[in-house]
Predict the 3D structure of the following.
Amino acid sequence: MINPRILIVEDEHIVSLDLQEKLMAFGYHDVIFASSGEQAVEKAGRLHPDLVLMDIILEGPMDGVKAATLIHQRIKVPVIFLTAHGDDITTSRALNLFPAHFVRFVIKPLQEESLRIAIDNALQA
Amino acid sequence: MNIGTLLRKLSVPGLFASVRLRLLALVLISFLPALALFLYSAEEERDKATDSAHREALALTQFASDRQEQLIAQTRQLLSFVVKQPFVQLGNALTCSSYLAELTKEYPQYTGIVVANLNGDLYCSSSTLPSPINVSSQPDFQNVVQTYEFTVGDYQIDKASGKATLSLGYPVFNENNELRAVAFALVDLSWLSGLAVNANLPPDSIVSVIDANGIILARYPDPERWVGRSILHKPLADAIFASDGPGTADIPSPTGVARLYGFNALAGEPHAGDVYIAVGISKAVAYGPAEQALRRNLIGLSIAAAIAIAIVWFGVEMFIVNQVRSLVRATLRFASGDLGFRIRPKHNSGEFGQLAIAFDQMARQLEERESHRKQLDEERARRIRSEIMLTEIQHRVKNSLQIAASLISLQARRVNDINSRAALQESEERIHAIAGIYTKLQIKDGAALVDFVPYLRDILPAMVRAQANSNGVALQVTGDNILLDSEKAVPCALLVNELVTNSIKHAFPDRKSGVIKVHVHRLHDQKVALLVSDNGIGLPENLELHSAQTLGLKLVNTLTDQLHGEITVERGQGTAFLIQFKAPENNKP
């Protein structure tokens, strides 16, 4: 895919900035941002990203899983959940809502190599 | 059929549900044997009274019979004396009559003594005759004339006096021993009535003399009313005539007095057996003592039963119902949630005392169980709260570590010096090592633990890949399942991170392929061995681990100290670091 658009949904702006630089280092330059679930749903519906990097705990009433569900109802876009949980409950909750090939998980703190592999795989799927 | 079955058959649904009624029924039943005994005893007494009355009546009839025999013998003797008197033999009527009148005054048992000539004309009489009397047609007269012997005649009722009499005839002979006349003595049977009086018979007793035709010849009491009347085909006459000899009879009387009879033939000459004497004793009188005893016993039994019923009625209230109510109250209070309620019986003995003790024991155990359950619930709730809090803390810590890692990462990208950048990247890796511990943290029995080998398998491959010169380096992680608490897990994780990073950086300078092995296993004495080895070029010979100045090895020494462990280095085919430290064994995955 040439110059895919990636939506970063993260309420910690420093992490969001680091993610953007990591993505640019990986060669992905079309990056858009959202810091809440509602904003992510709105931007995804409007800007049609090719991939969503979704933090699970977000500011506001809507969490990452709920936001990803609403996005998926509008556009079939793969989602990589950035989770600090790493627990089975979150994983199974997300997997129950999406087809397995649409969903990936990367554990925080983000290791560059793990993130890069996850993004490459998601965009190639 | 036992009592239980009987009660079940008798029971109206619900009627015997009450303990009080059940006990009352049992008490009443317990009186039945006594009642049966009293009734049986009364029946036996009645039988005895019957026997006694029969015996008494029979004795009296026997006595009468004997007495009659004596009277006949006496009369024979008297007549034998009378007929020898000259004025009798000569037919001197005036003297004879006067003599006989005196004689009958002396012997009141005779209603009269008369003498008849061979024509049957009475010429001599103890009483004045209103008109001449001829007895030639009388069988008694004829018997004497024919037999020349003393004869006992028939019983008959004297028309003049209305009394029953027995005529006894005796032949009168002259000096030539020729029959000249016949003397008769009429025996008054009313002595039999006197006999009844003298015998002290019980009240309402009767004495009857009846002939073969059922005619009453004598009777006590009320002779005037009864003498001469026939009782043929009446129960008494039937009983007498049906018997061969002395006998007894129980004659019911639908209108009058029921009596127990004894009867016998009056003794005398052979044909005198046609007359019978019967003595009747009132049943009511005969049975009186037995009936009275029965009445007394039944009254006593009734009083005893009434007292027993009263005792049961009030005793059940005091000794059973109150205690049952106390148990029911306790049960209801217990059921309503008052688990601390106890009966605390005053007496430990007895079924109710034991039941109350058993109840208290049960209540105590249930209270303890409930308390234990609540404790477990609270512990579980506490554990859940702890786990939620830990998850929250994990999240916040990891988020903070993520921010720190991002800051270092952002900084590293802006540093031009390669060494400085590498140093920042190492710091970032150390943060990843620490954060990985929080990812794998689990709560077990209130302790925060990490299953260390799976943690290494998760964290190390990415860490190795992140190293600049790690291509061709293979990583092997092996070991036992060992749970380490977070205090041990964090320094251990950093130790492994430093040693693996050290191997990648220094063990394979020519970038040829190599293997790094990490092995964790449990030793004895709660010790854990952590082995990090590579097949690289080995540490420089002059490098002293404890005096090394590189940050990585300084950290290794510091972290080993923090674990209160020991570190040894083997130099041979590569380098092997062995760290041994104590870790409690009580937690297994």
Q: What stands out?
A: The first helix of chain B runs from residue 3 to 10. The first strand of chain B starts at residue 110 and ends at 117.
